[in-house]
Amino acid sequence: MKLFIKISLTISILSSTIFSQSINLKGIVIDNESGLPIEGVNIILSEGLPQLSTDHFGKFSLSVEPGTEYRAVFSKIGYKSHREIIKSDSDNSFFEIKLIPGEIILGEVTVTSTRYSKLEKDVSIPIEVIGLEKLEKNLSLTVPDILNNEPGITVVRDGIWGTDINIRGLSRQNVVTLVDGNRIETATNHAAGLSLIDMFDIERIEVIKGGVSSLYGTGATGGVVNVITRRVSYTNDFHLSGIFSGGYNSVNKGGIGNLSINASGANWFLKTSGSLRSAVNTNTPKGKLPNSQFHDNYLSGTAGYRPFENHELKLSYQNFSGEDIGIPGGKTFPQSASAKYLLVKREMYSAEYRINNLFPSLVSASVKYFFQKIRRNVELKPNATTTSLPRADHNTNGLQLQTNWYINNFIQIASGIDAWQREYKGFRETIVKSATINRITADYPVPDSKYLSTGLFLQNESRLFNNKLIITLGGRFDLIKVTNSEVRNPAYVINNGVTTYPPANPQASFNEGKYNDQSWSGNIGILHSVANGIDLAFNFAHAFRSPVLEERFQYINLGGDVYLGNPDLNSEQGNFIDAGFRVWNDVISFKSNFFYNSFIDLVIDKPVIPDSLYMKDNVGKAVLYGFDLGLESRLINHFVIFASASFVRGEDTENNVNLPQVPPFNGRIGFRTNLPEYFSVELASTFFTKQNNVAFGEKTTPGYVLLDFYISSMPFEFNLFSLKIYAGVENILDKDYRNHLSTNRGSILNEPGRNFFVKTALSF
To answer: Which domains does the chain carry?
Structure first.
């Protein structure tokens, strides 16, 4: 790492001699039909440089090396992408780009989670992208709620506020969660990491499905979720804008308000965003879901500054805080329990310095540091006489160094180092008070511990036969170091004022320890264009996951089932095969992927005493296989039908039993239409079939069908203001149903009922 830093500093110094050689290119992007400028168009130069975007007036400017040819891609949801060869012949060259409107999604959205900036349709790995268009038209409470409509992705519910996702049968610890590329590391039980993000501050969500440890290291055996917050672009002149948004959900009388203000100039930008949200208990077809209320707030700020040409410094801060958040579900809780977050808080600080156009072949180099702190204070009342108060801090420090090389129009490389360390400190007191008992028991759910991961990665992309064949090769080497302090549980007992420390016969003990792990991971991806708009994709990857702190050391005893960790767990190893067939044209877009994933030493909760005691253990051999499909078709102008379906089967092949937490066959079908000058509407039906391939201790879940309706207005223009209105009805038929991935985690037997919502966005 020291050598890499020295090289980066040397490059930074040398780059000062190159600034005078760069030239300035300018341009504007307009609508081909109306001739009006288009704001927020993503611009990729040669898929190696960081993204640019057009300002409020559709304009853009960039500094490039003289005499260089760039393969630029202009993209925005709702338009067909445009590819342009830009030659940096003279200073102040001006380009006019016209985008043609489109009505179906053709993979034109830009993605960055592959370590490159490129269009979705140029990526061989299976990926889903949720852009502003989908985010704006509904009032989803959390990120998993909106991802639940994507093929291969299912919501895992520990409540209304507390949610997570399952990707192709794997969830929580098997899925890496990122905010702006920074890892969220927190507890695996009732994690709710994806609930700690403001839905109004999201620009897009990228989900990679399948093992991609070669990109992001340990934990990415199920996939990656990268939530990207809203950006601000540099503008030639001073520019000030903002959005005031509000919304209401009838199902829980939930209200939300958000204000976002942006300011920018030629070499700087500032953005701030804040939200307030509150809700009472959620209605279900069988009455209210007790203890499902929540109150939270969010504040963020982002600043960018270009001190020199081709240099950029970005600073970010996010603060999400919630209080009195009900947790009505969870298998670790007894049915009669009352549980809630007294406080849950996420703070993130991030600083990134990037240098572009260092040399003709080294198009960018960046160094990034982030710190993320998650605090969780819980109150659990298993019965009238007992109160348990777990509390913990989860601190993550991370450093990322990355370079992007553009060798020529056929070869590009991304390489770098990323390191992050999670530090856990937690404690729990359980108070029992009755007419005859006055006792306080203290213990450590997890010992104070640290988890350090350091990885070196290299990704190479080669384009052959006039871009008809794209081959991606990637490799990564990771070192994992885990340390923990000694723990004897319970730590002490205060019985009628008399303290026993430490008590005799501790229930769960962990000796002080150090554990080292290392692994190679790799991938090969092939994307072949067999005809205009028809692609074949193939991916093979070897991925790993080193067990997290809770899996190694946890001790959970909240009055229900008891869960114990296992320090002697082996790392999970997996081989992932994915084959895809895709069609992109003006009439139809179709994505299909078939996958087969095999695992060695998959970590599960293994029953020691049925329905009471579980211990983490490795499954010798396991497989997950299935498919996911997505279709959009424009039958006539302004009328589009869409459909999706996904299936996954999970088997412990060594013991010939089903794997737990595997969703049933499910899908979605519907249509959307619009009158371009007035409004757009969407009607969709979601279905889940019966799940009877259940693991030990799980319940069979009946199938169900839901119906949803959405309507969105076109912008109403009022001089300096623009107003958009969104509304809809979810679960129109007030269907009583159970989500398989919720039902099997405790007391959530009924999902939310009919919900009317309205949402407004006032831009200025």
So the answer is: 223-763 (2.40.170.20)
